[in-house]
């Protein structure tokens, strides 16, 4: 065991002073917020390689996981080969991005874009790199359970991208004795010289620089559709405690996921104000789950706005999800107009200045609106026409349906629930 550690040192992995505490940690979990070009991936790869020899159990399995498998290969595979090449009798499987060691341990790369490929596996140690870009369910539904039977360890490393799951983990880890935490800002580490940092700020702009080099969770996301409107809502104090008014009814707006998350906004239209009192999102459950959530909240519902594809009949059952929701007691359903995404985004921009958001019940939804952004073509260095599809899409799409779909009850025609069998 000691000999393997010496071999790793002989191949010139010399930990930076700022990362030595991470390598010497005793905690089971670790989270590192680090600036660009710090070297966090190199440190994480070497930490996993060391685990293959220091964990005292047979057939150790460790994994480096990036948002995409292609990204894991591009970012980490060469490092893995470099830092294991002097270890005797290793077996490298390039097609599976896997390295097997003589003692039975195995190091492998995965992508969170196909996280279900990890179902059924076990891990003794994992690294989740750029976790801020992971699908919402990857950690909780698949990776975390894979650590359970062997009490495996996990390390999360990323630069911030707003207040998403990575921020939640960072926030919760601060007072947890089972977690090692470190924030490594460029202004503190002195790894990059000041002239280079000044040039980066000039080139990137303040918001992106603060995010990428100063580890800011508060910086505005580049290309965000609602950045101006949500910033104004914050400055106006409209993201605050917004209690449910029992004298007013609640309108819900849904984005129905198939294989990913379903998101629901809960709004009260009171005079000229739109009070967003609640938000709910989940995945991997049926419509009966969401119906129960609505009924358990005991709100007085006026209207439920759903996207047009709720009318499509499923091949397996021959029923539409609209019919299923009606059978579950979700009535007064309004189908949102089938407008272009661009028109819906503009409607949402117009609506946000009228909205008050409950900061406790709507935390995830508010962050989805803040971070919902255009897709950027890295090859052409230009914005694509449509939005980036990531974890923010569900909440943003549901909010868009609220913006285009709400009609006051006096404007309703024949309730849609009375004509279910006539829906194509």
Q: CATH top level of the largest domain?
A: Alpha Beta
Counted beta strands? 17
Percentage of residues in strands = 15-25%
What do we call the CATH topology of the largest domain? Nucleotidyltransferase, domain 5
Number of helices: 15
Query: What strand order characterises the main sheet?
Result: 3-4-5-2-6-7-1-8
Count of separate structural domains:
2
- Alpha-carbon distance between the termini? 67 Å
Please state the second-level CATH architecture of the largest domain.
2-Layer Sandwich
Shape: globular
Q: Structural class of the helix and strand makeup?
A: alpha/beta
Task: Describe the largest sheet.
Answer: 8 strands, mixed
Helicity, in percent? Answer: 25-40%
Spans of at least 5 consecutive residues with low confidence: 1-10, 415-424
The overall average pLDDT, rounded, is: 87
Mind telling me the C-alpha Rg? Answer: 24 Å
């Amino acid at each position: 065991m000691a000999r393997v550690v010496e071999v790793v040192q002989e191949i010139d992995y010399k930990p930076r002073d700022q990362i030595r505490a991470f390598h010497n940690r005793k905690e089971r979990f670790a989270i590192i917020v680090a600036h660009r070009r710090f070297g966090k991936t190199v440190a994480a790869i070497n930490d996993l390689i060391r685990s293959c020899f220091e964990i005292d159990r047979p057939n150790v399995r460790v994994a480096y996981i990036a948002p995409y498998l292609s990204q894991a290969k591009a970012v980490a595979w060469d490092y893995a080969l470099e830092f294991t090449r002097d270890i005797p009798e290793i077996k490298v499987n390039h097609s599976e991005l896997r390295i097997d060691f003589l003692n039975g341990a195995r190091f492998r790369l995965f992508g969170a874009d196909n996280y279900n490929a990890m179902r059924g596996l076990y891990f003794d140690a994992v690294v989740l790199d750029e976790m801020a870009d992971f699908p919402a369910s990857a950690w909780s539904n698949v990776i975390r359970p894979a650590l359970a039977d062997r009490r495996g360890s996990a390390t999360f490393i990323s630069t911030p991208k707003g207040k998403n799951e990575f921020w939640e983990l960072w926030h919760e880890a601060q007072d947890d004795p089972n977690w090692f935490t470190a924030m490594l800002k460029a202004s503190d580490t002195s790894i990059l010289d000041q002239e280079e940092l000044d040039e980066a700020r000039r080139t990137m702009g303040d918001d992106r620089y603060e995010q990428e080099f100063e580890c800011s969770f508060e910086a505005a996301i580049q290309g965000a559709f609602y950045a101006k409107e949500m910033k104004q809502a914050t400055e106006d104090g409209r993201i605050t405690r917004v209690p449910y008014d029992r004298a007013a009814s609640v309108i819900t707006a849904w984005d129905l996921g198939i294989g990913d998350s379903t998101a629901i906004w809960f709004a009260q239209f009171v005079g000229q104000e739109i009070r967003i009192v609640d938000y709910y999102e989940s995945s991997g459950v049926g419509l009966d789950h969401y119906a129960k959530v609505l009924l358990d909240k005991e709100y007085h519902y006026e209207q439920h706005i759903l996207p047009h594809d709720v009318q499509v009949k499923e091949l397996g059952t021959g029923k539409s999800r609209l019919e299923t929701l009606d059978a579950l007691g979700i009535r007064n359903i309004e189908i949102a107009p089938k407008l272009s995404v661009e028109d819906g985004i503009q409607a949402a921009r117009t609506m946000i200045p009228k909205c008050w958001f409950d900061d406790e019940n709507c935390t995830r939804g508010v962050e989805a609106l803040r971070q919902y952004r255009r897709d950027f073509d890295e090859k052409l260095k230009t914005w694509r026409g449509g939005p980036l599809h990531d974890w923010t899409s569900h909440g943003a799409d549901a909010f868009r349906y609220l913006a285009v779909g709400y009609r006051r009850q006096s404007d309703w025609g024949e309730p849609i629930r009375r004509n279910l069998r006539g829906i194509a």
